[in-house]
Amino acid sequence: QVQLVESGGGLVQAGGSLRLSCAASERTFITYPMGWFRQAPGKEREFVSSINWKFVTRYADSVKGRFTISRVNVEKTLYLQMNSLKPEDTAVYYCAAYGAGWDTSPTSWGQGTQVTVSS
After folding, report:
1. Alpha-carbon gap, residue 44 to 39, rounded angstroms
2. Which of 74, 117, 116, 69 has the alpha carbon at shortest distance from 96?
3. Biggest CA-to-CA distance, the chain
4. pLDDT tens for residues 76-110?
């Protein structure tokens, strides 16, 4: 399994921005679709965004137009640029690798990074 380490979380006011990063341990990163998920207190983990090896992207409706996913394969790094943040974006954000294909469940997860948006 590929090892994933997130960073970039923190506390920000509503309307602000954050950029999350996810560093992967293996060169095979380039072949995996990658994604971001989040889990708010008392709620189930939910899909945020994903990107495949052709740089095709998917977004949850709740973040479309505000969040941008990207990847730099030579750096083995996945990013999530989050703009116009809202208090309801507060959650632990997880990076994930789709080791078995984009339309399956992720096979590798990072440890998560906390994002807190104050009103």
Report:
1. 6
2. 69
3. 40
4. 999 999 999 999 999 999 999 998 888 899 999 99
